[in-house]
Amino acid sequence: MSIIKVDKLTKIYSVAQKESGFLGTLKSFFHRRHKQIKAVDEVTLEIDEGELVGFIGPNGAGKTTTLKILSGLLYPTSGEAEVLGFTPWQRKPQFQKQFAFVAGQKNQLWWDLPAYETFLLNKEIYGVSDKDFKERITYLSRLLDISDLLKTQVKKLSLGQRMKAELVAALIHQPKILFLDEPTIGLDVIAQKKMRDFIKNYNQTFGATIILTSHYMGDVEELSQRVIIIDKGKIIYDGQLSKIVSKFAKHKIISLDFEKEISRSQLTTFGKIKDYDKFSSKIEISRSQIIDTTARILRELPVRDLAIEEPPIEEIIRMIFTKNK
Amino acid sequence: MSNFKFSILKYCKVWLRLGKMRFQEYYIQSRLHSLFLISGKLVRFSFFFIFIIALLTKTQTLAGFSLYQTLLFFMTFNLIDITSQFFFRSAYAIGWMINKGEVDFILTQPINSLFRIISDNIDFLDLATLAPVIMVLGLVITRLQTPITSTNFILYILLCFNALLIAFSIHVAIIALSILTQEISSEIWIYRDLMTMTRFPIDIYSRSIQLVLTFLVPIAVMVSFPAKVLLEVLSWQWIILAFLIGAISFGVSIRFWHFALRKYSSIST
Amino acid sequence: MKKYLAVVRITFANVLVYRWEYLIAQFRAILLLITLYFLWTQVFKTRINLFNFDRGQIITYVFLATILRQFVIISATDQIAAELQSWGKFFSYLLRPIGYFRYWFTVDLVYKFSSLISISLIIFILTKILNITLIKPSDFLYVLLFVAAILIAILIYFYFNILVSTAGFWTSQVWGLQFLVVLILEFSAGAYFPLNVLPTNLQFFIKLTPFPYLLYYPISIFLGKLSYLESIQAILIAALWLLVIFLLTKFVWGKGLKAYEAWGG
C-alpha cells in the first residue's frame, strides 16, 4: 500500500536579486531581476508503508526541497503529492500528527533547558497521553542510551547525545513517517553508526516509513534497501542499491596477489591499473571482458590469489554525477 | 462542540508550557539580570509619575484634565503597554526565529503557527511590573473627582480589551512583515515609541497628529479612548468607531499574515 | 595617525551600511521630541513662566536635549560588553595596534558625529517647517563655556559607559544592568525634562551625582540660566567628576581584566 504518492512534482524558484535595507526592498518592488531555478523537476515516485528510502544527491540536487514539499513546508509549482492520503501543503493537523521532520543541522531542543522539557512541550502539541508519553520516553531513551541525560541541560550534551535527544523529541508521538534531512551530518564515526543502527531498528520494530536524505554513502549503504538518486532536480535512479552497480558500473576490479615480483608493464595489457606494488595489484577490467581477461591472467602470470570486486558505490555515484554535468 | 473546548484546553496547556519553559530559561540564565530589567521599568515608571505630579501640582490642569485625570491616562498607558508586551513579546524576536529555522519547524507541527510564534516569548516576570501598575491604577480611579458609573467602567474594560486586539494586530503585522522580507525588522521600535506618545492625553497634540494616532496607527484608540470613556468625555460615536477600528485592524492583520505565510511557503529555500 | 584614520574609515563604512538602523534611532528621538514639544506648548498656553522657564527657554531646552542626547549619550562602548562575551576573541582585540580605550574613543567619535549631523539636520528642517525659533546664547563666552561643558560631558559618559561594561568581566548578561543604569542616568541628566521640575529634595540628591553634568548643566549654560561664575563652577565640578570616574574606571578595568584572564582557563 503506497503511503506516499508523488506525480510530476516540480518546484521552480524565481530568485530575485535583492538589495538590502528598506529602500532596496522598495526598489525591488518596481524592477526586479529574476533567475529561474528548477529545484525539483517532474519527480514521480511511490513509497510503501514501512519502506526505508534513501535520497542521495550532491548539494543543491533537490533532496531537501522534495522533503520540504512532502512535509508541507513548501508549495510546489506544479504536480501532485499525496502523503498518508493528505495533500501535504494543506497542513492539516491530522496529517501533521502522523509524521516528524528532523533536520540534521537544526535543533528543536531548547538550549538552556533539559531535553525533557522540550519533550513535554511536544507532548502537549501532539496530544500524547501521559501513559504513552512515559512509555515511549523510557523505551526510546533506553534504546539510545541517554536515560540519565534527560534532565541535563542540552548545551552540556555532546553533539552525538544531542542528536539522540532530538530523535526522541521527534518520536514521542510515534509518527508513521519520519523525514530525516542529513541526519548524520557533523557526527563522528561512532555516533554515525549508532544513529544508523537506531534508524534501522526503529523502522523494523515500528514499521515506520523512513525517508532520509544524505550525501554520505555510508548512510545509504547501511540503511536503505531502496535508493533514489537525485541530481539537478531529476530522479536518475530509483531502485535497489545492489542494482546500481550492475546498471551503472561498466567495470569490475580484479584484486591480484603474485608469487613472484611482477613489473607494471606486464600488467598494462590486461586493463587499467588502479593499484600496484611488486607483489599485488588491482586492475580495472570492463565487465564484458572479465571472463576472458581473468583466464588470460591465470595462464600468463604467477597468481597466488585472485578476487573479483565491484567498484565502490561511492565511485559509481560520483561517476554518475560527473557524467550528469 | 467538545472538539472546540478540547482545542482551547490544548492551546492553554501549550501556552502555559511555553511560559514555564521561558521562565526556567530566564531563571537559569540570570536572576540578577531579570531584577535589573524589572527595576529599570519601575524606575522609568516612577520618574514619569513624579514628573506628572510635580507638573500638575503647579499647573492644576493639562489640556483641561486634572491631576488624577492625567494620571488615569498615564496609568492606562502603562496597563496596555505592559499587557500587550507580555502577550506579544515574540514580535521582537521573530527575525532570529526565522534565521534559526524555527519557523520552518513550527510549520510542520499540528498547532496554529501564528499562535505558536506569538506565544514564543512569554515572560512571567512582566506580571511583577503589572501588579503595582494595576494597584496604582485602582488608586487613581478611586481618587477621580468625576463619578464613575458601572457602564463607564465596563466600557473602560471593554475598550482595554479592544486595545489588546489592536496591539495584537500590530504585532501580527510586524511578524508577517518579517516573514515576508525574511529580515529582522527594527520597525517594532517605532511602534513602541509611538505608544509612549500616549503617556499624556492626546489632546495635547495638534489636530493632524491626533488624526494620525487615531486612524493610521490607532494608539490613541488603545490608550486615550478607554481613559476618556471612564471620564465620560467620549461620545458613543467614537466608542463604536473604536471597536470598529479594533475589528478592522484584526481582520486586516490576519489577512496579511496568511498572505505572508503563503509567500513564505512559495519562496523559502 | 594612519591607524586612527583606518579605524575612522571602517567605522564610517559601518555606519553607512547600517544607515537604516541609525535613521530609525533618530526617528525615535524625534518622536520623543514631538511628545515633549506639544506637552510644554500645551502647558505654556496659559502661563508665561513655570519652574523658572519661559516658553522659549523650555522649547529650546527640549530641542537641545534631543540633539545632545544623540551626541553625548550615544556611545560605541556599548559593544564592549558584547566583545567580552567571546573570551578568546577579546584578547585578540586587546592586541590591536591601538590602545583599547583609544580605539573605542575613535569609533565613538565617528558614531557621535554621524548621529549629531543627522539629528541636527532633521531638527533644522523641522524647525523651519514648523516655524519654531530657538533661543540662542546671549554672548560668545557662553558658547565657549557650553562647548567646554559638552566636551567634558562626552568624556564623562565615555568612561562611565566603560565602567558599566566592566560588569561583562564577571557576568554574561550585561544589558539588563545597562538598561537600568542608562534610564537612571537619562532622567538624572535632565534628558526628559529639566531638573527644576522635580521636588527640591529629589533635585538635591540628583545634583550630587555626575549625571546632571551630561545635559542639564550644559544646556543651562547655553540658555544663560547660570552666571559666568556659576557656569565655570559647574564646568570645574564636571571636570572633577571626570577625574573620579576616569580613575574608578581604570581601577575596575584592571581588576576585571585579572579576574577575566583567570576565568578563561
What does the secondary structure layout of this molecule look like, with pairings?
The complex is a heterotrimer of chains A (about 325), B (about 270) and C (about 260).
Chain A: E1 2-16, H1 21-30, E2 34-48, E3 52-56, H2 63-70, E4 78-83, H3 93-96, E5 99-103, H4 115-126, H5 130-143, H6 159-171, E6 177-181, H7 189-206, E7 209-214, H8 217-223, E8 226-231, E9 234-240, H9 241-248, E10 251-258, H10 264-267, E11 272-277, E12 280-286, H11 290-300, E13 303-309, H12 313-324
Parallel strand pairs in A: 3-7, 3-8, 5-6, 6-7
Antiparallel strand pairs in A: 1-2, 1-4, 8-9, 10-12, 10-13, 11-12
Chain B: H1 2-29, H2 31-59, H3 67-88, H4 94-99, H5 102-107, H6 113-118, H7 126-142, H8 150-181, H9 187-196, H10 207-216, H11 219-230, H12 236-267
Helix pairs in contact in B: 2-3, 3-7, 3-8, 3-11, 8-11, 8-12, 11-12
Chain C: H1 2-17, H2 19-43, E1 49-50, E2 53-54, H3 55-72, H4 78-83, H5 87-94, H6 100-130, H7 140-165, H8 175-188, H9 200-206, H10 216-222, H11 228-264
Antiparallel strand pairs in C: 1-2
Helix pairs in contact in C: 1-6, 2-3, 2-6, 3-6, 7-10, 7-11
Describe the protein in words.
The complex is a heterotrimer of chains A (325), B (269) and C (265). With 325 residues, chain A is of the alpha/beta class. Chain A has helices spanning 21-30, 63-70, 93-96, 115-126, 130-143, 159-171, 189-206, 217-223, 241-248, 264-267, 290-300, 313-324, and strands spanning 2-16, 34-48, 52-56, 78-83, 99-103, 177-181, 209-214, 226-231, 234-240, 251-258, 272-277, 280-286, 303-309. In chain A, the strands form three sheets. A six-stranded mixed beta sheet of chain A has the order 5-6-7-3-8-9, with helices on both faces. The two termini of chain A are 36 Å apart. Chain B has 269 residues and is mainly α. Chain B has one domain. In chain B, 78% of the residues lie in helices and 0% in strands. The longest helix of chain B has 32 residues, at 150-181. Chain B starts with a helix and ends with a helix. Chain C has 265 residues and is mostly helical. Chain C has one domain (2-259). Chain C contains eleven helices and two strands; from the N terminus they run ααββααααααααα. Chains in contact: A-B, B-C.
